[in-house]
Each structure stands twice: as structure tokens, then as C-alpha cells.
Amino acid sequence: VDVVCFLLEQHADPNAKAHCGATALHFAAEAGHLEIVRELVKWKSAMMVNGHGMTPLKVAAESCKADVVELLLAHADCDRKSRIEALELLGASFANDRENYDIMKTYHYLYLAMLERYRDSQNLIVKDILPQIEAYGNRTECRTPQELESIRQDRDALHMEGLIVRERIL
Known about the structure:
The structure is a single chain. This protein has helices at 2-9, 24-31, 34-42, 56-62, 66-75, 80-96, 103-118, 145-150, 155-169. The mean pLDDT is 96. The chain has two domains: 1-78, Serine Threonine Protein Phosphatase 5, Tetratricopeptide repeat (Alpha Horseshoe); 79-169, no CATH class. It is built from nine helices and no strands. It is elongated and about 55 Å long. It is mostly helical. Helix content is 56%, strand content 0%.
């Protein structure tokens, strides 16, 4: 953190990009370096898209870095759709990451995303549902908080939900 602070104080550009299009915020978010992310946000590091179409928020979510996702959601200027996608991707990633598998966190973050979709009854953000995929047991993605609640105790269904969510977002 000290090196990052020093560089920023010496007027290093917090939005400088590597060849892949990633910024320091992308790298710190993916690695889960919370204090560096906090410092970069403080220095107005932008939520830019890298060469793979991913923002630092999405990179953190895809890497199961919940603390970084929550920090970025609290401090970054992102619209509702971006918030929802980040929460959904985080939940889906916990269902499909060998080192970070946690089905309770899967449900938790998918549910938070669903609540965000339905937060404003005058402005619902409906999912663009993918067609059924045989590899996912011909399941369709949950569309309502009630549908998600109905699979809360079903690990296999939550795992499939996560795969479908990742397919849609990534």
C-alpha cells in the first residue's frame, strides 16, 4: 500500500492501462488487495473496461473477492444494472469456484441482486433469460425472489443457477 500511495502522491496516473487494457484497479481488485483498492478509489481510479470487457467490479466478483465488491459498490459510481450484475456474478462465482466454493454465499449474493432488481416497483430491472441449455439440466434462471427462495436449500439447483448466471453475464 505504501508504494501505491507514494506513486499516487507523485502524480502517477491511477487510470494508466497495461497492454491488456487493465488498470491498477483491475489488478488490485482481482487479487483482493482491499487497501490498495480503497486507496485507488480515493484517488478517483475509474471503473474502466479492460480488453476482455470487464470492469474492476466484475473482475472482483468473478474472482470471489466479496470484500472488494462491497467496497466498490459502496464507493464507485455505478448504475443499478452494474450493481445487479456484480452481485449476481459474485454469487455465481461462489457456486463455481473450487477454492472459494460457498453455496450459502451463492444464495446470499444472488438474493441481494434479486432484491436490487425489485427495489423500485415502478422501474423493475428484468432479466434477459437465456434459452434452456441441456448441459444445465434444461433449467431456466430464477426470475423472482420467490423462485430463488424455492431453490435455497437445493445445492444442485443453486450450482446450476450459478452456471446460468455466469453464461448470461460473461
